[in-house]
Amino acid sequence: MSPMYVVTAKEMRELEQLTIDQHGTPGHVLMEQAGAGATDVLLAAFPHVRTAPVLIFAGKGNNGGDGFVIARLLKKQGIACEVVLAAKKEEVTGDALRNLTMFVQQRGRVTEITDATLYDRVQHKLDSCGLIVDALLGTGLNAPVRGLMADLIAMINASGVPVLAVDIPSGLDADRGVVLGSAVKAALTTTFGYPKLGLVVAPGLAHVGRLEVVEIGIAPEALAAVTPQTALLTKADMGARIRGRDVDVHKGDFGHLLVVAGSRGKSGAALMSGGAALRIGTGLVTLGGPASLNTVFSTALMEAMTVPLPEQPDGSLRFDAQAMTEAMHGKSAIAFGPGVGVSTHTIGVLRCLLTQSTQPLVIDADGLNCLATDPNLLRETKVPVVLTPHPGEMARLVKISNAEVQERRLEVARAFATQHHCYLVLKGARTVIAAPDGKAWINPTGNSGMASGGMGDVLTGIISGLLAQGYAPTDACCLGVFLHGYVGDRAAQEKGQIGILARDLIDQLPMGIRELQNSRSRMGEG
After folding, report:
1. What is the mean pLDDT of residues 276-284?
2. What gap in Å lies between CA 84 and CA 75, rounded to an integer?
3. Which residue in 345, 401, 343 sits closest to 369, CA to CA?
4. Same domain (yes/no): 328, 452
5. Helical H segments across 92-146, by residue range
6. Looking at the structure, do residues 208 and 322 belong to the same domain, yes or no?
7. Are 155 and 304 part of one and the same domain?
8. Is residue 339 part of a domain?
9. In which order are the strands placed within the sheet that holds 432-434?
10. Which end of the chain, N or C, is less surrounded by CB atoms within 10 Å?
């Protein structure tokens, strides 16, 4: 199954140019296919346009050209539509001019808007239309929107009329998803070829509405030449990654996870990680924490085993190399960090795990804060390591501000993963997964109701549980993150976003797995 690649504006330009130059597809054909696909989406999503006029706002560039194609095809079907051109007709060139000319030859109506004295004419048209098509500014925008374009965007947003954005909402940065001065708020965005990065990350999400991808005929050879390094996780792909089970299996076939977590007052972190690991299908789970928590662990999570580890007087872990070596014996993966605190002892535990473990490691929460004291500790490991920081923990790891992390999430995650040869899961709205080879994935699942305590501990259990079962690190991270958000969405749908708990996600995991498996089965039947 092909991944849903996500591209930068530069990569999309290269894909189109290679398709034009080396594979014999003229640019006007790509524009025609883009406009035709967008028109199909428009008619399916907004059937009321057959009785309500469509107003197409077009710029003078190729984005406007796509809008002219839509206008021509709508008019051909007898649907009332007209174009508001934010330029003079003589400023339009190339393939865009070709399609503007064809629309005019159809007796299509075009109103040129070049200054504020004409805004009353725009407002009059807005007051009587049933749908707006935004084809003002495309993916090449790299400076704040001002003047005429900013005013038109403000009028569109204030109209209350639903908007279909062509390729990208005007005013949105195609690579970062940030608003460049002002941006259209669309109900639906039809993007061409592949989703642009700015469409699938915050804050751009708030402007995109529903996202539909329109195939325009990019040559496979062009895709192979450009080799995009980022993809969007999809339900079908994730369902295909879930392994089935033979009838003659036993618990030993599904791994043994050691969860080193917890301290006095923070036993819940270990329990949630361990519980999530069991619900994700791990055969055996052992909770390793300060000895005084052993009874709590045994009674609260009866399906798990326990190993009491040495502790300090304050109820946190005390580093003992022999005890850690014995605890690691026979395990197929290890999770470390939730609720352990930061001290010379927990840093010692981390160093021991990194240098002595022969199995994959997941490091989260306080384990990451321990690592932040010296990220170069990662160089001492010989096994796959997965880090699962939230933005604050990421900021401590790379010694920059939280705001800087959020502004450059994909860049920061990819750089750290490649530099330190680890797998990095940068949590938050649209979690980013980055691999040591530079590839990255963006997760579309999850909701704001998951901004509550314990959610990260559950994710740690899911990913480490998959690793324990023998999933490759990339599959464990991608499937784990997608499933975590998927069951979070499921819980929010049943209970409402406000007040869902981390343990609600744990309870939903088996049903979430089944639904992903069923989606794979339906794809196969189709």
Report:
1. 98
2. 15
3. 343
4. yes
5. 94-105, 119-128
6. no
7. no
8. yes
9. 4-6, 230-232, 440-442, 432-434, 423-426, 385-387, 361-363, 333-336, 256-260, 284-290, 305-309
10. C
Q: How far is CA 270 from CA 143, 285, 320, 380, 512, in A?
A: 48, 11, 19, 26, 22
How do residues 336-362 score in pLDDT, each as one tens digit? 999 999 999 999 999 999 999 999 999
Question: Are residue 131 and residue 269 in the same domain, yes or no?
Answer: no
Q: List the CATH number of the domain containing 434.
A: 3.40.1190.20
Structural domain total, the chain: 2
Q: What is the CA radius of gyration of the chain?
A: 27
Closest CA to 423 of 461, 467, 366, 453: 467
Name the residue with tokens 């708030």: 206
Residue 41 CA to residue 98 CA, distance in Å, equals 23
Structure tokens at 23: 């594979």
In this structure, are 171 and 292 located in the same domain? no
The half-sphere exposure of 233 on its side-chain side, counting CA atoms within 13 A, is 32
- CATH number reported for the structural domain that contains residue 165 in this entry: 3.40.50.10260
**Rounded Cα gap, residues 207 and 183, in angstroms:** 7
> Is the residue at 525 inside a domain?
no
Between β-strands 210-214 and 188-192, what pairing exists: parallel, antiparallel or unpaired?
parallel
pLDDT in tens, 442-493: 999 999 999 999 999 999 999 999 999 999 999 999 999 999 999 999 999 9
Cα–Cα distance for residue pair 417/420, rounded to 1 Å: 5
**What is the C-alpha separation between 419 and 421, in angstroms, rounded?**
6
Q: pLDDT tens-digit profile of 111-147?
A: 999 999 999 999 999 999 999 999 999 999 999 999 9
Given 200, 229, 258, which residue is the final one in a domain?
229
Tell which residue, 316, 306, 252, 240, has the closest CA to residue 283.
Answer: 252
Inter-residue contact 474 to 481 (CB < 8 Å): no
Closest CA to 331 of 258, 271, 415, 266: 258
Distance, in Å, from the CA atom of 381 to the CA atom of 420, rounded to the nearest integer, reads 10
Q: What is the pLDDT of residues 42-60, one digit of tens each?
A: 999 999 999 999 999 999 9
Q: Are residues 88 and 193 in the same domain?
A: yes
Q: Record the tokens describing residue 279, joined without a space.
A: 């619900």
Sorted by sequence, the CB contacts under 8 Å of residue 187 that are 6+ apart come out as: 162, 163, 164, 209, 210
pTM across the whole model: 0.94
3-class SS of residue 138: coil
Smallest CA-to-CA distance from 353 within 259, 476, 426 is with 259
Domain extent, residue 192, equals: 4-229
Sign, CA dihedral 298-293-426-224, equals negative
Let me know whether 203 and 322 are in one domain: no
Residue 230 CA to residue 236 CA, distance in Å, equals 17
Kindly state whether residues 307 and 378 are assigned to the same domain: yes
| Residue for token pair 């390793």 | 288
**Residues ≥6 apart with Cβ < 8 Å to 371:** 350, 363, 377, 378, 387, 397
